[in-house]
């Protein structure tokens, strides 16, 4: 955030032209501007905010939904805890969540609503991270994103201060997520996810991880027809749920009941066993 920095800069410029009494008053204003603020101002989707002559409009939730999957290149800086950077507030962010400069999973933006989930990629280092927007700013020049200090470290541009990052919206926020709530805690996101040849490769890596997670969940949880189909769809890229094309029909599987260990068919009823099972097998053999 550069709001306080901008205000202090204005105050400094005015001090030189004021008389003694007015100068003392201006210094008091300057001190108030330099001291960390309690909380950042709330940020409303669709609204425009201006600081120090720089204006940005926050996208609406619908506009952010339309950006999902699209890639932008944004001039990006980073900001730190108020104990290290006096221009940043020590209180809550514009979303109501506390700023975590030491975690590589959060960022501020003047164009994305709070609660937006972003995949960011630094082409210079080929490093990627998933970040949650939880704050407003920066309002300085053409910068459209301010990542946490830890995110800048992981993405490899902290030493330079500013970088051109490729950004893809992974998920738009709900109205509740985009609305200020004091001391809120968003659901965690992945943070730093590693090095990739490109932004698209990073996005593909996230898809693979999601598929593996779906399969793992299906294995651990009681198996149903629905969870089995979801797991197969996550793995088989030919299935319609992922490509829209007609794919092979998943094979009928038999699983173990999570409570009794009895073999169950897709209908959920116990499969034949013992003499009855042997009789069915005999009939099927034609004897």
Topology:
Blueprint: H1 3-15, H2 20-34, E1 48-51, E2 54-57, H3 61-67, E3 71-79, E4 106-108, E5 117-122, E6 127-135, E7 145-148, H4 149-155, E8 163-171, H5 175-178, E9 191-195, H6 199-220, H7 225-235, H8 240-243, E10 255-256, E11 263-264, H9 274-284
Parallel strand pairs: 3-7, 4-6
Antiparallel strand pairs: 1-2, 3-8, 4-7, 5-6, 5-8, 6-9, 10-11
What would you say this structure looks like, in words?
The protein is an alpha+beta fold and about 290 residues long. The protein has 9 helices and 11 strands. The protein has 3 domains: about 5-35; about 50-205, Barwin-like endoglucanases, CATH 2.40.40.10; about 220-270, no CATH class. It has helices spanning about 5-15, 20-35, 60-65, 150-155, 175-180, 200-220, 225-235, 240-245, 275-285; strands at about 50, 55, 70-80, 105-110, 115-120, 125-135, 145-150, 165-170, 190-195, 255, 265. The strands form 3 sheets. It has a 6-stranded mixed beta barrel. Strands 1-2 form a two-stranded antiparallel ribbon. A hairpin with a 6-residue loop joins strand 10 (about 255) and strand 11. The protein is globular. The termini are far apart.
Key words describing this protein structure:
single chain; 287 residues; alpha+beta; Barwin-like endoglucanases; six-stranded mixed β-barrel; 11 strands
């Amino acid at each position: 955030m550069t709001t306080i920095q901008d205000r202090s800069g204005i105050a400094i410029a005015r001090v030189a032209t004021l008389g003694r009494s007015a100068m003392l008053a201006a210094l008091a204003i300057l001190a108030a501007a330099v001291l960390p603020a309690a909380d950042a101002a709330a940020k409303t989707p669709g609204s425009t905010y201006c600081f120090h002559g720089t204006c940005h409009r926050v996208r609406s939730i619908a506009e952010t939904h339309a950006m999902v999957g699209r890639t932008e290149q944004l001039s990006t800086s980073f900001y730190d805890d108020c104990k290290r950077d006096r221009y940043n507030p020590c209180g809550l962010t514009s979303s109501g969540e506390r700023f975590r400069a030491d975690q590589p999973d959060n960022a501020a933006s003047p164009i994305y609503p709070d609660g937006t989930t972003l995949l960011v990629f630094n082409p210079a280092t080929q490093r990627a991270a998933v970040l949650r927007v939880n704050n407003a700013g920066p309002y300085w020049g053409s910068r459209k994103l301010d990542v946490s200090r830890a995110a800048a470290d992981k993405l490899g541009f902290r030493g330079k201060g500013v970088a051109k990052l490729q950004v893809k919206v992974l998920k738009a926020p709900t109205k509740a997520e985009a609305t200020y709530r004091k001391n809120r805690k968003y659901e965690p996101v992945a943070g730093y996810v590693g090095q990739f040849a490109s932004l698209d490769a990073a996005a593909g890596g996230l898809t693979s991880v999601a598929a593996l997670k779906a399969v793992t969940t299906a294995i651990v949880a009681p198996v149903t027809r629905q969870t089995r189909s979801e797991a197969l769809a996550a793995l088989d890229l030919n299935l319609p749920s992922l490509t829209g094309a007609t794919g092979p029909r998943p094979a009928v599987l038999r699983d173990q009941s999570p409570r009794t260990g009895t073999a169950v068919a897709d209908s959920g009823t116990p499969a034949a066993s013992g003499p009855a099972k042997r009789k069915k097998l005999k009939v099927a053999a034609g004897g």
